[in-house]
């Protein structure tokens, strides 16, 4: 059989005459974490219009497609759900704010007057990214937090403080592996244990932290007990 005379040859010739093409139109842009590149990149949000082509020229509309997200670096296309994931910069800021909020909440449960608890909190907050954090700053912020939420030191975690914790932790939790969520809880536990065993108020705050991080109550109990058995 001569080349191009079989079924495949006919299909190839047909495809070269009639086909489809997508015309993309930019509908927005920004910065995102590109799964293809593995880092923060610029993107364009594209909507597409499918068209039949005749000899490579668009002739008839065939309907819309997309939208998609196109990476400005690798040019790959992704579903728009990729924009739900924070950029590396945003993720770092969310993690830093989460640790800071947990530290303040635990201190507000009774550790703000303890030098060892304040020292442990400063270490955790600095490690998270607030390099210039001081004990005096944290103590002042605890006072401001109590004034804002109407909470008294040593009380169980009230609605105002619970809202603060959930606002900081809820957006972060889906993007953390189990070990990452547990690490944040354990940082709070170490601050609470710095000046002695957990108080009921500290346990209540840490339980709220665990719930906001979507850690089940049994695992919260296990992790807090393990932290209490670990020498500081």
Automatic annotation (TrEMBL):
| Residue ranges annotated for the Co-chaperone DjlA N-terminal domain, each copy included | 119-222
The name under which this protein is listed is TerB family tellurite resistance protein
Q: Which domain of life is it from?
A: Bacteria
- Coiled coil, from the record: none
Q: Specify the species.
A: Streptomyces purpurascens
């Amino acid at each position: 059989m001569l080349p191009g005379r079989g079924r495949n040859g006919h299909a190839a010739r047909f495809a070269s005459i009639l086909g489809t093409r997508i015309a993309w139109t930019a509908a927005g842009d920004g910065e995102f974490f590109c799964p293809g590149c593995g880092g923060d990149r610029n993107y364009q949000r594209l909507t597409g219009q499918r068209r039949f082509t005749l000899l490579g020229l668009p002739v008839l509309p065939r309907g819309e497609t997309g939208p998609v997200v196109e990476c400005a670096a690798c040019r790959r296309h992704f579903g728009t759900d990729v924009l739900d994931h924070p950029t590396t910069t945003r993720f770092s800021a969310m993690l830093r704010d989460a640790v800071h909020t947990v530290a303040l909440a635990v201190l507000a449960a009774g550790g703000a007057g303890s030098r060892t608890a304040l020292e442990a909190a400063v270490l955790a907050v600095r490690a998270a990214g607030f390099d210039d954090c001081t004990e005096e700053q944290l103590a002042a912020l605890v006072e401001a937090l109590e004034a804002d939420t109407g909470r008294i030191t040593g009380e169980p975690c009230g609605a105002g403080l619970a809202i603060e914790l959930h606002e900081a932790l809820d957006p972060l939790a889906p993007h953390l592996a189990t070990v990452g969520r547990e690490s944040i809880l354990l940082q709070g536990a170490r601050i609470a244990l710095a000046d002695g065993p957990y108080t009921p108020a500290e346990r209540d705050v840490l339980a709220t932290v665990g719930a906001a991080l979507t850690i089940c109550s049994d695992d919260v109990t296990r992790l807090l007990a393990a932290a209490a058995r670990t020498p500081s």
